[in-house]
UniProtKB/TrEMBL annotation:
Full protein name: Phytochrome A
Name of the coding gene: PHYA
SUPFAM superfamilies: PYP-like sensor domain (PAS domain) (SSF55785)
Composition-biased stretches (Low complexity): 1-19
Region called Disordered, residue ranges: 1-20, 41-62
Organism: Medicago sativa (Alfalfa)
PANTHER family: OS08G0260000 PROTEIN, PHYTOCHROME 1
Xref: InterPro entries: PAS-like_dom_sf, PAS_2
Xref: Gene3D superfamilies: PAS domain
Residue span, PAS fold-2 domain: 69-159
GO biological process: regulation of DNA-templated transcription
Length: 159
């Protein structure tokens, strides 16, 4: 019996650390979203991510209201983060199983307005991500697929 309690205790502390990381990441995401909304057309994701990512014990988030508003916006149906796109990948094969409507445009795969007869889309269901991203980006995505809680790695910057 005594062997199960330490194991249970370590599981609980692991869960609480995981919850703390998720809360911290959600706070950073909320601040990024608020910065995006305030910036209009001059949003610089990279510099904003560096500034927002520096949340520590000394810098408290703007407010819980910002985080709550962000979560309500994201969790509503038919809403996406306006500063990115979504790819759902099979963790074993690295193939695309779903993607957001804005993914081809965000990943600059739309070469021209009217496709030619022989053109095939670069992004589609079943596309291997290693064929559409640079080697370091594909490697970062493969690494992320190995994590149980990928949201802790967000954002994953790719080229």
């Amino acid at each position: 019996m005594s062997t199960t309690r330490p194991s249970q205790s370590s599981n609980n502390s692991g869960r609480s650390r995981n919850s703390a990381r998720i809360i911290a990441q959600t706070t950073v995401d909320a601040k990024l979203h608020a910065t995006f909304e305030e910036s209009g057309s001059s949003f610089d994701y990279s510099s904003s991510a560096r500034v927002s990512g520096s949340v520590d014990g000394e810098h408290q988030p703007r407010s819980n209201k910002v985080t709550t508003a962000y979560l309500n916006t994201i969790q509503r149906g038919k809403q996406i983060q306006p500063f990115g796109c979504l790819l759902a990948l099979d963790e074993k094969t690295c193939k695309v199983i779903a993607y957001s409507e804005n993914a081809p445009e965000m990943l600059t795969m739309v070469g021209h307005a009217v496709p030619s007869v022989g053109d095939h889309p670069a992004l589609g269901i079943g596309t291997d991500i290693r064929t559409i991203f640079t080697a370091p980006s594909a490697s970062a995505l493969q690494k992320a697929l190995g994590f149980a809680e990928v949201s802790l790695l967000n954002p994953i910057l790719v080229h």
